[in-house]
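To assess whether ligand presence alters the predicted conformation, the chain was also submitted together with 1,3-dihydroxyacetonephosphate. Input:
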Amino acid sequence: MLAKTLELVTEARQHGVAVGAFNTYSLELTQAILGAAEQLKQPAILQLGVASVKTGGEPLVKATVLAAQNASVPVAVHLDHCADLDMIERCLAWGCASALADGSHLSFEENILLTRQAAALASSYGATIEAELGYLAGTEDGVTIEAIKASLTHPEQARTFVEATGASMLAVAIGNVHGFTPNPPPLDFELLSQIASQVDVPLILHGASGLGKESIQHAISLGVAKINVNTEVRTAFLTAIAAWGQRVGPTPDVRRRGQDWLDLMREATAAARAVVTEHMQT
Ligand code: 13P
Ligand code: ZN
Ligand code: NA
């Protein structure tokens, strides 16, 4: 059943847990995420990235919303990391319950302006905005500890920011990074508790791929109520496709009437679903 992001996140927080937010790129990944959620009888958030929305447009967004609607558990659809108000509005009109208005690379004042406009827009759709203050360092070589530190969320600024924007959820930068890093730097839990003491809205943790269960649980205990996972799930899907290609070879067997396609997608979907299940059990 179709749910609102903020309701899922608020309810999770009240129960001292977090809701898993997984990026999807296709119907198969959507099925992987929903299959895991339904089996575990847990709510979930399906997230679409800007590049996917640019490529898939209205059909992708509406198909994702329809899949959420048909699920046996509450599922919300969310637009991830978007700095484009027009795209945010299109996605809300197509059924997304929320968007991350990502002004994290803007100046503090410009970030406030973007986020405030997005929040006003969202409320006219009965939707809500996740905002981001501070930004996540990439995983490219050359990212220094100083660069990571300079980009962390500042607790008092976070309070001013949330009050000035009307954002309903806040993504924090506490040393978390996007992508899979085998030995990620430890999260700054002291900073997270300072942010939590300044800000009333639920906190969101991005970059959960590569983070250990203990780190994720610690973050949840300090007020994080939405955990974003992308790379690990996508990698499982793509790795299964690559393995299948190695095994089966590049030539489709025309006599199999599409069975090869279905076999491949079934294997890749199962691999992605296993990763989602593991995260949902954290
Ligand atoms: P990972 O790719 O590290 O899981 O990050 C996901 C994310 O933050 C999506 O917004
Ligand atoms: Zn993110
Ligand atoms: Na990560």
